[in-house]
Write a structure and sequence with these properties.
The strands form three sheets. Strands 2-1-3-4-5 form a five-stranded parallel β-sheet, with helices on both faces. By secondary structure, it is of the alpha/beta class. Helix 1 crosses helix 2 and helix 7 packs across helix 8. The chain has three domains: 3-128, Rossmann fold; 133-182, Orthogonal Bundle (Arc Repressor Mutant, subunit A); 192-281, Lrp/AsnC effector binding domain/regulation of amino acid metabolism (RAM) domain (Alpha-Beta Plaits). The longest helix has 18 residues, at 7-24. The model has no long low-confidence stretch (mean pLDDT 91). It has helices at 7-24, 39-49, 70-73, 89-100, 102-105, 142-153, 159-166, 170-182, 210-220, 247-259, and strands at 29-34, 56-61, 77-85, 109-117, 124-128, 192-193, 200-208, 226-231, 238-244, 264-272, 280-281.
């Protein structure tokens, strides 16, 4: 099977091959793929190197270093390969596991390659997540996002101070803010700090008939303590996030606003401290 014919592997090689070749140089090297998913990109990379690098071997291990053929990495530069880095757990466990044995096995260096890096840890990656990557840059650019981030942190920050951080004049910052307002990309509004009014929160998931869900959405949209409201799929079909002063207030909300509705068939509740995000809520003036 020629893995190099598969488009994702071809993309992996085309994007990273030369940089990895530079990393290996003329040194003895070893590709170590993490089970179970890293095998495809690792084998494709190995096939690509075979005609030109005879001092390259390939092996595998678990992300904690278990199952490693130690003799294959001894005295070599090592490249760990996996499909993606999502939380960074496998990256940290695997790289630290090898670096702890670096002296014992005379490993010359350890680096990590992946197709998708969602947390910005890998040495080689095809696609890396960044906050800017979710936006359409034909509509706004990175400077606009930096301005928005500063406004979100402090809506009263002078344009001159904002401009110093991103190398723009106060006039340019003002013009960009005005444009974002005109195009309704941002709005200016007062928000309440949740920690000044509440001490805990609850996530309420419920199953109800369609009419009851519509009625609950309309009712909850007007309630100040409701900070999150979403239609969901699966066992439940509506999720409601509420803020509260204490457990009694949560019970009272559930009994009065939810259990009282005949169309509600099932309820599941999770309680905890104040939400990590959002930290502010819009005031709902009734």
């Amino acid at each position: 099977m020629n893995l190099l014919e598969y488009e994702p592997i071809k993309k992996f090689i085309d994007t990273l091959g030369k940089d990895i070749e530079k990393y290996f140089g003329k040194d003895d090297a070893c590709i170590v793929y993490l089970r179970p998913d890293g095998i495809f990109y690792a084998q494709g990379l190995y096939q690509w190197f075979l005609p030109k690098k005879k001092n390259l071997v390939i092996t595998t291990m678990d992300d904690d270093g278990g199952g490693l053929e130690e003799e294959k990495v001894r005295g070599r530069k090592v490249l760990i390969v996996d499909t993606d880095v999502v939380t960074g757990k496998a990256y940290k466990r695997s790289t630290e596991g090898l670096r702890l044995r670096k002296k014992e096995l005379q490993i010359r260096d350890v680096k990590f390659a992946t197709f998708i890096d969602r947390v910005g840890l890998a040495d080689f990656f095809v696609w890396k997540y960044s906050p800017e990557s979710i936006w359409h840059f034909d509509e706004m650019n990175v400077l606009d996002l930096k301005i928005i981030a500063q406004l979100a942190e402090n809506g009263r920050e002078p344009f001159a101070n904002m401009g110093k951080d991103i190398n723009l004049s106060a006039v340019t910052v003002k013009n960009r803010v005005d444009k974002l307002l005109r195009e309704k990309v941002i709005t200016i509004e007062a928000q309440l700090r949740a920690d000044q009014f509440y001490t805990m929160c609850a996530q309420i998931f419920l199953e109800a008939d369609a009419a009851t869900v519509d009625m609950l959405i309309e009712k909850c949209e007007r309630r100040q303590e409701v900070y999150h409201l979403v239609r969901v799929t699966g066992i439940y079909n509506l999720g409601i996030g509420i803020l509260a002063h204490n457990w009694h207030a949560i019970e009272e909300f559930i009994e009065r606003e939810i259990r009282a509705e005949k169309g509600v068939r099932k309820i599941f509740i999770i309680t905890g401290g104040l939400p990590l995000a959002p930290k502010t809520i819009p005031p709902k003036i009734l």
